[in-house]
Each structure stands twice: as C-alpha cells, then as structure tokens.
Design goal:
The structure holds 2 protein chains of 2 kinds.
Chain A (H helix, E strand, L loop, with lengths): L3 E10 L2 E11 L4 E5 L6 H9 L6 E6 L2 E2 L10 E4 L11 H11 L4 H14 L15 H14 L4 E5 L7 H17 L3 E6 L2 H7 L2 E6 L2 E6 L1 H6 L4 H6 L6 E8 L2 E4 L2 E4 L8 E6 L4 E4 L7 E10 L4 E7 L2 E7 L10 E6 L5 E3 L11
Parallel strand pairs in A: 3-8, 3-9, 6-7, 7-8
Antiparallel strand pairs in A: 1-2, 1-4, 4-5, 9-10, 11-12, 11-14, 12-13, 14-20, 15-19, 16-17, 16-19, 17-18
Helix pairs in contact in A: 2-3, 2-4, 3-4
Chain B lengths: L6 H29 E2 L2 E2 L2 H8 L3 H31 L5 H9 L6 H12 L4 H8 L15 H30 L2 H9 L4 H29 L3 H7 L6 H10 L4 H25 L9
Antiparallel strand pairs in B: 1-2
Helix pairs in contact in B: 1-12, 2-12, 3-7, 3-9, 5-7, 5-10, 7-9, 7-10, 8-9, 9-12, 11-12
Classes of the chains: A alpha+beta, B mainly alpha.
Bound molecules: adenosine-5'-triphosphate and magnesium ion.
C-alpha cells in the first residue's frame, strides 16, 4: 500500500518560482502522468517527491508516512532520471543491480531480477558493456531497467522514453503499461508527449507554470479541458477557440444560436471545439455555419483543413476521400455534446463541473 | 586538407625541443655519469653508493617517509575536499586558507617547523609555560632520529597536502551530482555512496595526486636538511653531499638514478593498480 500525496508544495530557485502551491494525490497502484510544457516544474516536483530537492513549503506523504524530512534512501522509491544518471564506472549489469546490491539481496536474486529487467527493455545482450559504449537510447533503457529491477512500490519516471525512436517507444510504452499494471506499482510518470500521456495514464495531471491546472482521466482532460491552455496543449492539432457574441443566455455563431451552460457577464464567450468534432458538408445544412477553406493538408488517416470563419481561423479534420479545395466554402456542424464554453479573459471553462 | 595533418606536430615542436634540452639531455647526462668513469663503463659508482655507511639509512628513511606522508596527505586531502563539498557559504574562503601553504617554499617550511622544534623554540616555550617540562628538551638530535622523522612528516603534511587537496577538489567538481543522487535514491547510505560512487569516479584525480605526491616525497630534501641535517639521511640529501662535500658527481648521479628508478617503479605500480577500464567518460 503506497500512494503519493503532496500538499501545497512551493519551491523557488532564487527569485524564480518553479512551483507555486502544487497538491496532488496518486492513489495506491495508480498510474498518473504529469504532462506539461518544458520548464513548467515537472522534474522539480518529482525531485521533491524523491527527496532530492527540499520544498520551501508543503508536505509529502508516501503510503502512510510523511516523508518531508526524510533523506531519499528512506523514502523507498525508485526513479528514472531525465538525464539517466547511469553510473559510468559500472557495467550495464552492475548499474541495473545497483538498487538490489544496496538492499544486500542474494546473488541469485540479483541475477534473476537484472536479467528480467534487461530483457524487458531489450538490453539483455548489453549487460557486459560500460555506459560509454552505449547509445543514448540504450543508456536510457538501462536507467529504466535499474528502476524496474528493485520492484519498488512507488516509481517515479522522468521522460523515460524520450530518447527512443518512434517504433521502439510505442513498444516500450505498451510493455511498461502491462508490467506496471501487473506489478501494481504506483507510478508517477513525466512526459511532454501528450499521446504517451493519453495512452498510459489512469489520470493525467496537466501542469503549467508551476501549477497543476487540471487533474482528471485522459478522456475528460481531452474532451473537457479546464481552460484554454489545456485545450490548446492537449490534442494535435489543438482545440479551436472561437470568440462569439453573447445574447442573454445564448451565443450566436453566424445564424446558429447555441445555449450557454451558465450566465456570462461579458459581451463575448469562447467556444472550444476539437477539429474532429465538426460534421463537414459542401452544401448548406441546418445547424451549421459556413467557413472558407484556406489550406488542405492530407495527413493519411484524414485531411486537415485550415478554415476562415469571419476574422478567425479554425481547423477541422475530414475523411481522406472528402472532395474539397482551397477557396471553397463549406458548412460545419459542431456536434452538440462536444462543445466547451470558456470565459474569454481568464480562459477558464464555464461549465460548472 | 593534407597540410593540416602537420599542424599539430609543428605546434608541439617548441615544447618538445624545450623538453629535450632541459629534461632529456640532463637526464641522459646523469645516467651516463653514473655508469662511466675516466676509463670507460663501470658499476663502480653504484657499488660505492651501496657500500656507503649512510646508504641503508637513507634508503630506509626515504621509503618510510614516502609511505607515511603520502597516505596521510591523500587521506587528509580527501577528507578536506569532501568537507568542502558540503559547505555552501564561504567555500572559497576555506579553499584559499587551505591552499596558503602551497605558496611557501619547502626550505622556508622546514625553517618554520625548526622554529617550533628547536631547543629554544615554540614547543619548548609552550611546554615550559604550562609546566610539563622544567628544562628545554632537545627534540631534533641525532640521538632521536624518530623525533626528526615525525617533525619532517609534520612539516611535509602541513606544506604539501594542499596540492593533493586542490587536485581532489577539482576532481570532485568534475563528478556530476546526479550520480550521487541516483545512488541515494536507490538506497545507498552516505558511506556506500562514497565507496561505490564517489571514490571510483574520483580515481583519475586520485591517480594524478598519488603519482605526483609520491615522486615529490621520494625527492624530499630541503625540509629534512632544515630540521635534521644529515641526522636523518635521505636519498636526495646523499646525492647532494656526494656532489658538494665529497666532490664525486658519479656517486651523486648514482643516487639520482636510484631515485628515478624508484619513482618510475612507483608510477607504473599506480598505473597498473588503478587502471581505468573501458569506461572513458560517461
Ligand atoms: N537548480 C535550479 N536552479 C535554478 N532554476 C532551476 C533549477 N532547477 C530548475 N529550475 C527552473 O525551474 C523551472 C522548472 O524546471 P523543471 O526542471 O522542473 O522543468 P520541467 O518541467 O522538468 O521541464 P522539461 O520538460 O524541459 O524537463 C525551469 O524554469 C527551470 O529553469
Ligand atoms: Mg524535466
């Protein structure tokens, strides 16, 4: 039984505030992904949980224990470092065995666990080499294997697959997910690859500028972003945000009238729609609005259209056989259940959640 | 493109010439001096050296001094360098204070310590003042070579630990802190971290420091002369007396060659014992 709980963590480096009041709970056996842009404080949060960095304020629990004052070795976590930190003076075997050696595990157990972890990461034929004789991606897999070999209750991983080629990454991702679910390891996993986050996570914590802006299941985060940042950061291409005039309890989109979920104080409101959440027609249909096609990009599984609606640009995806060319006017019907309303100045979602 | 291949050789040429003139040539001269006399090749100088009354003591004390001083210095310097690593504020101040002895010549250092241990020196004044002794004691006499030995060790440790310290501080700074952090996360105690991570990664610096200090310790001379004269004979001192007092360059050269031989042997031993494996830089 070991969840992770952090409460109101604040951390400054000199004048720069890296974390401003982060609270997060990872349940026992849960797989949580920390997702956010470069420099938002993901590594800093992980290092504070591991005990490598001291928070200015706030507390950390692992399992039932408060660990805020404990040194890293007493926190009983394993970690994959963003910069690997694979020991240059030890062979791959000894690197992976390091944690077990510190626990004074018997030799047969060490050998078995090391080989198991190495096989999982496809580095079983490199066990005798030194890190200087490995490629970056191989070194990264040694770092992952070293963390897996100790079979921790709590595993912290800082972009563990960032240096692998796309194919290998896909494969490792699936294997990690299977293994960690099987071993019921509580995992906090950092990435700025949103596809990786969506595919792995039980829950995603989206971070921005030292804060967690949304913490929810992947599909919730995707479909119901808490603000414009989340909608724009997750999804490729990002969510469209259309600025629409407000009339009482309704917003007007060309001839369309859309009901708002709550009262709006300002004269305008933002409508968030994902590019795939439009039904697109070449002729006028009820409940649709016109837009001019500017660019057509064939992406394989679908076409990506860049469109102009009044002064605003938006993106929509259509099936690859959809006949369309630049300059043409098409009609878009937003799917009613997939609309997200946001406040234009703060960027926060309107819907009472 | 082809001509660029010669540029490195042209650039090292001045230093090679310099080394040839100032090191290789005198070295060769000394070697020749030790194995030749007016009538040709001979081992006479080495035989005279070995038969000399002072030879055995000189060899014994030189080796003993080296075996005492070098481990002491490396141990102390390592401790100091590690302590410095955990000091955040005033780090530079400690570094400067600890390296002050580096600026003092060995003869001056010997004289400083002579001022402490001599008959009317600071040590005796102090001991008399606190009432431990009634009369000034004669510490550094030919009857007590072990006292001279200890005084030399003290002076050498005081004078030359700093160079080891500087080398090790630089070496420690080269080790990225992430390795220590990884070790910590995976359960290493501070002690294990030192043995399993810090020390192996420090090996190249330790090797340099050991070789440098061992060679210099084998040549110890000025401090010994200041504190004990010939009451504590050492190899470099004997070379000096044979050259100056006995006017016999041949035997002096034989001593020099002996020191050289021991130095080379020690260096090879270090290189072999502390061989870095294939790791290079990670
Ligand atoms: N030791 C430090 N001293 C000063 N500033 C730091 C230090 N460590 C991190 N920072 C700053 O804190 C912020 C957060 O850093 P952090 O490493 O946590 O980012 P990150 O989210 O992991 O980014 P990335 O995805 O690029 O790894 C950054 O702006 C960084 O410049
Ligand atoms: Mg990071």
């Amino acid at each position: 039984m070991a969840g992770i709980r952090v409460e109101n963590i604040e951390k400054s480096f000199g004048k720069f505030k890296a974390l401003s009041g982060v609270s997060l709970e990872v349940r026992d056996q849960e797989f949580v992904v920390l997702l956010g842009p470069s420099g938002c404080g993901k590594t800093t949060l992980l290092r504070i949980i591991a005990g490598l960095e001291q928070a200015d304020r706030g507390r950390v629990w692992i399992g039932e224990r408060e660990v805020s004052g404990l040194p890293p070795r007493s926190r009983r976590v394993a970690m994959v470092f963003q910069n690997y930190a694979v020991f240059p003076h030890l062979t791959v075997f000894e690197n992976i065995a390091f944690g077990l050696r510190m626990q004074k595990a018997p030799a047969e157990k060490i050998k078995a666990k090391v080989e198991q972890a190495a096989t999982l990461m496809h580095i079983e034929n490199l066990l005798g080499r030194y890190p200087a004789q490995l490629s970056g991606g191989q070194r990264q897999r040694v770092a992952v294997a070293r963390a897996l070999a100790v079979e921790p209750e709590v595993l912290l991983m800082d972009e563990p697959l960032s240096n692998l080629d796309a194919l290998l990454r896909l494969e490792m991702r699936a294997e990690l997910k299977r293994l960690l679910a099987e071993s019921r390891t509580t995992t906090l996993y950092v990435t700025h690859d949103q596809v990786e986050a969506m595919s792995l996570a039980d829950r995603i914590a989206v971070m921005n500028a030292g804060q967690i802006v949304q913490y929810d299941q992947p599909m919730k985060v995707y479909q119901e972003p808490a603000n414009t940042f989340v909608g724009g950061f997750i999804g490729s291409p990002p969510m469209n945000f259309l600025r629409l005039p407000v009339e009482g309890q309704q917003a007007r989109l060309a001839s369309l009238v859309l009901a708002l979920p709550s009262e709006v104080s300002g004269a305008e409101v933002l409508l968030g729609v994902r590019p795939e959440d439009f039904e697109v027609y070449t002729d006028q249909r009820p409940q649709s609005f016109p837009a001019e096609v500017l660019v057509v990009e064939p992406l394989g599984p679908h076409l990506l259209l860049t469109l102009r609606f009044g002064e605003q640009l938006l993106k929509a995806t259509v099936p690859p056989d959809f006949a369309v060319r630049p300059g043409q006017t098409i009609w878009l019907k937003p799917q009613p259940g997939r609309l997200r309303w946001l406040e234009p100045t703060s960027g926060q979602a309107l819907t009472a959640r | 493109m082809r001509s660029e291949r010669y540029i490195p050789y042209v650039l090292v040429l001045p230093s090679v010439v310099f080394l040839l003139f100032l090191f290789a040539w005198p070295l060769l001269e000394a070697l020749l001096l030790s194995v030749r006399n007016s009538s040709g090749w001979t081992l006479e100088h080495f035989q005279r050296m070995a038969a000399d009354l002072y030879f055995k003591d000189a060899l014994k004390y030189t080796l003993l001094l080296t075996l005492t001083i070098v481990p002491l210095q490396v141990g102390l310097a390592l401790g100091m360098a590690l302590l410095l690593g955990s000091i955040a504020k005033g780090r530079d101040l400690f570094l400067y204070v600890w390296t002050i002895p580096l600026g003092i010549s060995d003869l001056a250092a010997g004289i400083v310590w002579l001022a402490i241990f001599t008959e009317r020196g600071y040590l005796n004044s102090f001991l008399q003042a606190v009432g431990v002794i009634q009369q000034p004691q004669l510490w550094l006499s030919y009857e007590t070579p072990w006292m001279i030995f200890l005084a030399v060790v003290a002076a050498e440790v005081w004078r030359a630990t700093a160079i080891v310290f500087v080398i090790l501080v630089a070496g420690l700074q080269l080790i990225p802190k992430e390795y220590g952090e990884a070790a910590e996360v995976f359960g290493a105690t501070p002690w294990q971290r030192f043995w399993k991570v810090t020390l192996p990664l420090l090996r190249p610096s330790l090797q340099v420091a050991l070789i440098l200090r061992t060679i210099l310790a084998l040549e110890v001379f000025a401090v010994v002369v200041a504190l004990g004269g010939r009451n504590l004979p050492v190899l470099a001192g004997e070379a000096y007396y044979w050259y100056n007092a006995y006017q016999n360059p041949g035997v002096a050269a034989a001593y020099a060659v002996l020191i050289l031989g021991i130095s080379v042997a020690a260096t090879l031993l270090y290189l072999r014992l502390m061989r870095t494996k294939q790791e290079a830089v990670g």
